[in-house]
Amino acid sequence: MSVGAMKDQWYPVGLISGVTEEGRDSLLLGEPIRIFLDGGTPAVTGEGERPLPVELRYGHVWTCPGTPTRPLFDIPEADQLGRRLVDVGVCRVRCSPLRAVENFLDIAHFPFVHTDILGSEPHTEVTRYEVGIREDVDEVWATKVQFFQPQAAKSAEGGITTDYMYRVCAPTCSVLYKTSPPMPGEWDVIALFVQPLTETLCDVWPWMALYDDDASMTDLIHFQQLIFVQDRSVLENQLPALLPLDPGMEIPTRADLTSVAYRRWLKRNGFTYGAQLVAA
Amino acid sequence: MQVTEEFVLEGKLGSADLSPWLLRHAGKLGLAIALRVQTDERLEMTLSGAPDLLDAMEMGCLLGPYDIWVDSVARIRSGCRNGG
To answer: Which SUPFAM superfamilies does the record match to this protein (chain B) (predicted)?
Structure first.
């Protein structure tokens, strides 16, 4: 599979706080990279020690293996006072990076995979919501999403109907906005930054910007890690391993509208690294 | 409940793969399908079956085979039958 248009996108490659002088080796879109401190500043090189562009944002080091076609996407909430910014860490998953993002967008799995945390039976219905591509920023947005959750966040006490918005702002990055239990009228932000190591292996770097003055940082991290570890076992057993852009054996339903919009957006932009183009 | 709807697809539809793909996908969903008009930019077909499965057909059409691009799917209900 050609890397194609995905070569010119931004990707997370590590926590800013985790970069060392000695550095470490990693992969990006199947190519070797190295992340290290150069004069105290994080730097990234590609094959042949070619310097790659670097951005430091949202607690992470970002790079682009090609020529960036646009700046790194903006998450304005990252600069709002009163939010706690949480670098969750890394979770390696044996799945397509596109599958990891698609799973993040899937509300319908909450009661079955995150039972009694993000969902519970019999509250399994996904009510109708709106999905579209915002042409001015070329992002997928799902809005007016509502779902009942027994424990929507670490700070939630008891079940609440949670409002959501989903945003796909890069081929392997998605941001979820959800009702903030302690701050009605504000959104908690949970982002999934995915580093595509290969077409079937990725490092997932969740990041959060929350209103929560009570929970310890350790508890916040453990809560999000628990959610993602539950997802990992599902992700690593999905077939086909690559994300199909032709539905083929899968039958998407109206509850999958965000996933359908994401796949259409990938197809339209030629973001096909990690995708299966023709149904098996 | 069984309903019959006219589906009108618009976009870049000039692929020989599209018609067989639609017939196959409708078959997987257990829908009755009749293709009526197909040009490189527009396809009209009649589909009958359960409403949720017609919704699933719409989702499938939005993706379609890789070498086509569907801009829009318009649906017009033309019949409705309870039972069966």
So the answer is: Acylphosphatase/BLUF domain-like
Instruction: In whole angstroms, give the CA distance from residue A204 to residue A230.
Output: 13
CATH of the domain at B32: 3.30.70.100
Q: How far is B37 from chain A (nearest CA, A)?
A: 23
Measured in angstroms, the CA of B26 and the nearest CA of chain A are apart by 10
From A278's Cα to the closest Cα of chain B, the distance in A is 6
Q: Which residues of A touch chain B, with CB atoms under 8 Å apart?
A: 245-247, 251-254, 256-257, 260, 263-264, 267-268, 277-279
**Alpha-carbon distances, residue A91 vs A217, A241, A278 (angstroms):** 18, 18, 29
Give alpha helix (H) positions in B1-84. Answer: 18-29, 51-63
Any domain includes A73: no
Residues of chain B in contact with residue A243, where contact means CB-CB under 8 angstroms, are none
Q: What is the pLDDT of residues A228-275, one digit of tens each?
A: 888 888 899 988 899 999 887 778 888 889 999 999 999 999 999 999
Report yes or no: A202 and A195 within 8 Å, Cβ to Cβ.
yes
Whether residue A267 is contained in a domain is answered as: yes
Within-domain flag for A24: no
Q: Count of CB atoms within 10 A of residue A52's CB?
A: 19
pTM of the model as a whole: 0.91
Question: CB A253 to CB B64 under 8 A?
Answer: no
Bridge partners (DSSP) of residue A210 are A84
Nearest to A58 by CA among A100, A20, A89, A86: A86
Interface touch A260/B55, C-beta < 8 Å = no
Checking ipTM against 0.85, whether it exceeds it is yes
Contact call for A254 and B28, based on CB within 8 A: no
On chain A, the residues whose CB falls within 8 A of the CB of B62 are: 260, 264
Residue A125 lies in a domain: yes
Give how many domains chain B has, as a whole number.
1
Q: Model confidence over A46-58: pLDDT tens digits?
A: 999 999 999 999 9
Could you tell me which of A16, A250, A169 has the C-alpha nearest to residue B25? A250
The amino acid sitting at A136 is D
Contacts of A251 in chain B (CB under 8 A): 28-29, 56, 60
Question: What pLDDT does A274 receive?
Answer: 96
Q: Which domain holds residue B32?
A: 2-81
